[in-house]
Each structure stands twice: as structure tokens, then as C-alpha cells.
Amino acid sequence: MEVKLVVASGKAKGRAIPLPSTVIMIGRGKKCHLRPHCPLVSKLHCAIASWAGKVVVRDLKSCNGTFINGERIHGEVRVHDGDHLRIGTLEFTVHIEITLEEALPVQVVHPSEVKWLMDSKDGSSILKSSDTCAGVAFDEIFQRGGAQLGPAASDPELSAGDYLREYFRKRP
């Protein structure tokens, strides 16, 4: 992931400041990585952290505040590509670029891929409930937004194959 702050106004408009893949401290203090010469910026003003595909800005109890998209933040706020960051009189646009290697693919399961698990040659279910999940109702495991996707939880003898058949039948 590549994160940059792009200066949005002033003499340096358009200049990009690449951020490290860990934490950067912004303020006028000697411990800060980025030290703007603006009297409205506190000695320890804010921190920007990036990890696991996320970028967050944390206000460090600055006197004049840290603003994301025009709103003063308190504590830590997640930022996204294109968000605007204001620190004192300085304005930046946050640019976040995630490489293809970092983008996590979403795995989609199609009924044809698990047909072998749902059916046997003689038409009966291959697995019994006692062979899978030790009698735990599948509805307790698979839920989406509070709506149950599988068959009734009251059926303790439900096989994995029966569950999958019912899951794909009810899936939106």
C-alpha cells in the first residue's frame, strides 16, 4: 500500500509527501517526522498510521484540532483515498493506492463446486450431522445480517450436504 499526502493549496500545491508504511507523527516538536512551520500546529499535533490495508489519523489532543473532510476529529478516524486532511492552515488530500498483490480476493462458492459434498452416487447425503460439527446447528455458525440462511436450527440430524443444498436454495 502506498500512502501520500498531496498539498492541496499554497506555494507547494500538488507536491506529494510519501508516508512510511508504519506511523508518522506531525507537529512542530523535535520528535515529529513532518514539522510544518505553522503556529497553529501543536508540538505533537496528529499521527497517521497505515497497516493491514487501513489508514487512520489520530488527533493527539492538539489545540487547534485535526480535521478530516472539514470535520474536527476526536481520537482516531479511518481515512480513505481522496479524503481531505487539515492541520492548522495546511490542507492535504490523502492518496491511498493498494497494489494488486495487497488486494484480498473475495472467494465465491458456487453450488457446482461443492456438488460432490452435497450428493452421493445413490442420491443420499454423504455426510451425517454426527460426522460434521458434532451436532452443532449450522444456523449458529452461518448468519448474515441477522437473517438465517440455512435450515432450521432445531434439526440436529442435518447433514453437511443437506445444509449446503438448503443454503444455496435460500441464498439471495
Query: What percent of residues are in strands?
Result: 25-35%
Average the pLDDT over all residues and give the rounded result: 77
* Spatial strand order of the main sheet: 2-1-10-9-6-7
Total helical segments: 2
Largest beta-sheet characterization: 6 strands, antiparallel
- Poorly predicted runs of 5 or more residues: 132-154
Looking at the structure, what is the overall shape? elongated
Strands, total number:
12
- Specify Rg, calculated over alpha carbons: 26 Å
Q: Helicity level, as a percent range?
A: under 10%
General description of the model:
This protein has 172 residues and is mainly β. It has a 6-stranded antiparallel beta sheet, with no helix packed on it. It has a 4-stranded antiparallel beta sheet with strand order 3-4-5-8, with no helix packed on it. A two-stranded antiparallel sheet has the order 11-12. A hairpin with a 2-residue loop joins β6 and β7. The chain is elongated.
